[in-house]
């Protein structure tokens, strides 16, 4: 008479006399005692005591076999041994309790027909009821183990999926960093090759920018406030390189400063506008960066008055996402926001280009 409702693990069985198991012994003993009460001549307390003793002996042997032997032969299942042990202990426990509770009686209980009948009934109840209770407990135990194993596997699967997502994001981030850095260094090289007196000043600005930007590149998330600081530093750097061909403006709602976003989100759009819009144009142009909140979503727009798609030498690549930068950004947005984020690209008239991000505002 026992109950193995749950167990921390296969290697850590429940205590021998855990409350859940003892409760089942008590409830079954009381139920059997009430059924036998009309035909039992001795006190009901004595009957209940005998039932409890037999039930606790079964509970004890059930727990012992649950722990020992630690390794079972391949041909013998532990549950079979537990059920057999519960059944075999019944007559031994019944003999012990009858001998202990009738020692003051001058007649040996085995010679008393009424006591012998009670002995037989107690054995029958133990042999008929207890193994079924043990089987039920084992079933619930195994079912609980299977459920915990399923939950554990599901948890591991979700952890693997999250790790894979994190790894993919790190890989994409690693692709963004050299893409941006190499493009910026290429701009400095052009100034050096042309003998521009601005090369030293631009290089100093680049060093100052990298000191501020590089520590944030490996962060899993950023904020729009940090993003705009990087954008401003980058545009100032580009303005030093081509002061007569680049103007810019930055506007952002105060409430959007702490909104989370993937690192280098806005910087990717701005660098794309410089590289594909302003830089190829002899006249240059203007870049406008605007970030606002609307209905719980963030709208970030980067537009330029550069040459646009029609005249860009890289138009074929532009039509597919304007090269590595935007393709990378699209994938990062998909990994983080799934289908809840959109990157829209549009041509401006009479010339220019616009990129707009729409994603949930998360703080």
Short description:
61% of the residues lie in helices and 12% in strands. The chain is an alpha+beta fold. The protein folds into two domains: 19-157, no CATH class; 196-360, Histidine kinase-like ATPase, C-terminal domain (Heat Shock Protein 90, 2-Layer Sandwich), CATH 3.30.565.10.
Description:
- The chain has 363 residues and is α+β, with helices and mostly antiparallel strands.
- The protein contains 10 helices and 7 strands.
- Strands 2-4-5-7-6 form a 5-stranded mixed beta sheet, with helices on one face. A two-stranded antiparallel ribbon has the order 1-3.
- A hairpin with a 5-residue loop joins β6 and β7.
- The N terminus is likely disordered.
The helix content, as a percent range, equals 55-70%
CATH topology term of the largest domain: Heat Shock Protein 90
Strand order of the largest sheet: 2-4-5-7-6
Please tell me the overall pLDDT. Answer: 77
Low-confidence stretches: 1-11, 311-321
Number of helices: 10
Main attributes?
2 domains, 12% strand, Heat Shock Protein 90, 5-stranded mixed β-sheet, 10 helices, two-stranded antiparallel ribbon, alpha+beta, single chain
Write the layout of secondary structure elements.
Layout: H1 19-36, H2 44-67, H3 78-101, H4 113-193, H5 199-217, E1 222-223, H6 224-241, E2 246-252, E3 260-261, H7 265-278, E4 285-294, E5 297-304, H8 308-311, H9 315-318, H10 323-337, E6 342-347, E7 353-360
Parallel strand pairs: 2-4
Antiparallel strand pairs: 1-3, 4-5, 5-7, 6-7
